[in-house]
Amino acid sequence: MTTTDPLITLTQDLIRIPSPSAGEEPIVTFIRETMENLGYDEIFVDEVGSVTGSIFGKRAGLNLLLDCHIDTVGVDNPDSWHVDPFGATLHEGRIYGRGAADMKGAAAAMIRAVARFKEIHGDDFAGSVSVSCTVCEECFEGYAARSIAERTHADVVIIGEASELNLKRGQRGRAEITLTTYGSSCHSSSPASGTNAIEAMSRILPEILSLPVPSCPILGQGILVATDIISNPYPGRSVIPDRCTVTFDRRLLVGESQEAVLAPLEAVIASCPSVKASVGFTTGRMESYTGHPIEALRYFGAWLMDDDHPVVRQSLEALNTHGIPATLSHYRFCTNASCYAASLGIPTIGFGPGSEEMAHTANEYITVEELETAYHGYLILIETLLSKADSSAMMGS
């Protein structure tokens, strides 16, 4: 491959457009123009700002959705990069840049694979194929995905998060939990005149951190990790704090309800009546670049497909038959499938170029070899999933 290869060029073009969460408008404009030039039948930008391109067959069939997010985390440590984070440098078979693996390489491969499928088949196929390029995923996994699933009537979803070209059939979810203890402020020279919220927190926090965690033989443990602690007022200069808040990251397993996740923490609080405290899920708020308000609990569910589900089995067989030695695995991080699979129950698999370890790191890169293989893999998966005559069996209904 050379830099004139359209797949490499598109990947580089996407990397060169900075697209932090809520700042994706320039890349959405570029993707929309790219899809128009590639002959997509329909291109739609929704109220949140995600862009979706679709092609339609002349016969009824499976509605297949290929999903990627186009927002990235920022570059907080530019001095740690040995290349321009937005230069999309091609060196020794690697394309470097923010979002290369997470996940602009997959976006380029998906966009071009669907265009190639249309070039080969025209409208002589059953069903539809859509590519969704979602916004704000780094902050709200799955929020922007819901309206896309509804608009495209998605029956099966392929997410392109980095999988090292293996087939992912599940992930833990995640929840952000806040625990707050309450006291009463007073001057720190007379601490007995008040109630120190930090001391109250110190009585229940060790018990919470020592709670047993649930586990799944495939996805692992539903861990609870403290990620932040702060008191109020802050800084507390000669003042006893009246509030202390700890934030936890809780990794979720399939089947866990919100009530079940909070119950052990609530039991610890109840066992210590001298401590006034509350616990709950964090609510996140932001605006997308369109000005659309986003407000939701930071609670993103887990999902796991059976190994013998038709989508999993047939996809794995097709990749291996065509020379891509994929194995079954699962994601360690959270993805848009928290909406598609966990919330909406749509059969979902993950397949993408790049390594999970590359996400959010300095000197992020994707190899040209994996990029090209992913492109061919998407073509294989589209052909396989659309060609199945019994779509009801494919969807597991």
Write a structural description.
The structure is a single chain. With 397 residues, the chain is of the alpha+beta class. It has two domains: 6-171 and 302-394, Zn peptidases (Aminopeptidase, 3-Layer(aba) Sandwich), CATH 3.40.630; 173-287, Alpha-Beta Plaits. It contains ten helices and 21 strands. Strands 1-2-6-3-7-20 form a six-stranded mixed beta sheet, with helices on both faces. Strands 9, 12, 13, 14 and 17 form a five-stranded antiparallel beta sheet that branches. A three-stranded antiparallel beta sheet has the order 4-5-21. Helix 3 (100-121) packs across helix 9 (368-387). The mean pLDDT is 95.
Helix/strand-derived class?
Answer: alpha+beta
Unreliable runs, pLDDT <50, ≥5 residues? none
Number of separate strands = 21
Our estimate of the beta-strand percent is: 25-35%
Helix content: 25-40%
- Would you give the CATH topology of the largest domain? Aminopeptidase
- Cα shape: elongated
Q: Sheet with the most strands?
A: 6 strands, mixed
Strand order of the largest sheet: 1-2-6-3-7-20
Quick check: average pLDDT? 95
Number of domains: 2
Task: Compute the separation of the termini in Å.
Answer: 43 Å
With helices defined by DSSP (H or I, 4 residues minimum), what is the helix count? 10
What is the CATH architecture assignment of the largest domain?
A: 3-Layer(aba) Sandwich
In short:
The chain has helices at 6-15, 25-37, 100-121, 145-152, 197-209, 258-270, 310-321, 337-343, 368-387, 391-394, and strands spanning 42-45, 51-56, 59-69, 90-91, 94-96, 126-134, 156-159, 167-171, 173-182, 215-216, 220-221, 224-232, 243-252, 276-281, 283-287, 293-297, 299-300, 303-304, 328-331, 348-350, 365-367. By secondary structure, it is of the alpha+beta class. It is elongated and about 80 Å long.
